[in-house]
Structure prediction request, 149 residues.
Amino acid sequence: MIESEFITWEAPDGDHPARRLSQRSYDAVSRKAKEEWLALFDDDALLEDPVGPSFFDPEAKGHRGKEGIAAFWDLAIAPVKEFRFTIRDSFANGNSCANIGTFSTVMEDGTLADTDLIATYVITDEGKIKSMRAHWEVERTLATVRKPS
Prediction:
C-alpha cells in the first residue's frame, strides 16, 4: 500500500496487481500528478466516471485512450483543489479489482462533497489499466455538497 495522508485504506490489502494499480491511481490524483496518472493507463484504455450519462460524459461513451482520459482529467480532476480517498472494501481477482469507498473533494472555493462509489479496474497483462469504471450517482453526491464551517 502506498503511504499517503490522502488515502485511508480500511479494506483488505493483499498484494494484487489490479489493487496496486488502483492505489497508484489514487495516489497520483491526490498529488495532482497528471502525467504520472496517465502513464498508468493502456494506450486504448476506457474510463467511465461515472458509468452512464453525466455532465462529464453526456453521451455515455466513456473517455477512450490517453487523449480522452487526459481531457477527462482537465474537466473533472484539475478543478478540484484536494482529493481524499477512503476505501472500505476491496475485492481483487483475475485481472481486476473492485473498490468500495468514498472520494471526498474540496473545490478551490472551499466547497466540500463526498462521492460514495464502487470503482472497478481491469488491467492488461503488461500491468496497465485497461478500464476504470466508477459507479456512483450524481444526485447523491450533490446532496453532500457543503461549505466549510
User: Anything to note?
Assistant: The longest strand covers residues 80-93. The chain has one domain: 7-142. Residues 17-30 form the longest helix (14 residues).
